[in-house]
């Protein structure tokens, strides 16, 4: 089951990155729902574990790093008005930040486990979700500063 969950999360991330590389209208639902869903899934999984103080400390570190790297990713993306609504496009810098984020997350996770963190406490959905949440917060700030509305949800 963990393999299926991992494949679904990785598939979602690849889908989101590919769409944003091409540029897309910023629909509020697309910006805010995925991080909330991933944080909820990951948080639920973490809460099922018996967390020690060490686990909670490392979890806090990884969450803060995820939010910070998500905010950095958002800072490298282009948010612009087009056809009266906001659009977003990832740049090559955004991809570089994604790669760096992945590498540092792996390193910090390995260090945490070596330091005694229970390996199952590390949640991929939670990690990706808080990263996307950091990104969404910066996009919200940039959207408000632009004074241009989000694109309507066509679903």
Written account of the structure:
The chain has a three-stranded antiparallel beta sheet. The chain has one domain. The model has no long low-confidence stretch (mean pLDDT 88). Helices cover 72% and strands 8% of the residues. The radius of gyration is 16 Å and the shape is elongated. The protein has 155 residues and is mainly alpha-helical. The chain has five helices and three strands, in the order H-E-H-H-E-E-H-H.
Total tally of structural domains: 1
Order of helices and strands: HEHHEEHH
Helix content, binned percent: over 70%
Structural class call reads mainly alpha
User: Using DSSP, what is the number of strands?
Assistant: 3
How many strands, which pairing sense, and closed or not: the largest β-sheet? 3 strands, antiparallel
| Strand-residue proportion | 5-15%
Radius of gyration: 16 Å
Summed up, the helix count is 5
Low-pLDDT regions: none
**What does the overall shape look like?**
elongated
State the strand order across the main sheet.
1-3-2
Distance between the termini: 30 Å
Mean pLDDT over all positions = 88
List the helices and strands and how they pair.
Blueprint: H1 2-22, E1 24-25, H2 28-47, H3 53-76, E2 78-82, E3 85-89, H4 92-114, H5 124-146
Antiparallel strand pairs: 1-3, 2-3
Task: Supply database-style keywords.
72% helix; mainly alpha; 155 residues; 8% strand; single chain
């Amino acid at each position: 089951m963990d393999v299926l969950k991992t494949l679904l999360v990785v598939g979602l991330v690849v889908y989101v990155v590919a769409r944003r590389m091409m540029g897309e209208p910023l629909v509020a639902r697309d910006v805010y729902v995925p991080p909330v869903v991933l944080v909820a899934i990951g948080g639920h999984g973490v809460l099922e574990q018996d967390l020690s103080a060490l686990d909670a400390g490392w979890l806090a570190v990884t969450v803060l790093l995820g939010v910070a790297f998500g905010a950095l990713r958002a800072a490298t993306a282009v948010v612009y008005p087009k056809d009266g609504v906001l659009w977003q496009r990832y740049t090559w810098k955004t991809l570089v930040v994604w790669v760096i984020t992945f590498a540092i997350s792996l390193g910090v996770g390995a260090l945490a486990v070596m330091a005694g963190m229970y390996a199952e406490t590390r949640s991929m959905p939670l990690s990706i979700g808080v990263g996307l949440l950091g990104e969404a917060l910066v996009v919200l700030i940039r959207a408000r500063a632009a004074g241009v509305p989000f694109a309507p949800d066509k679903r």
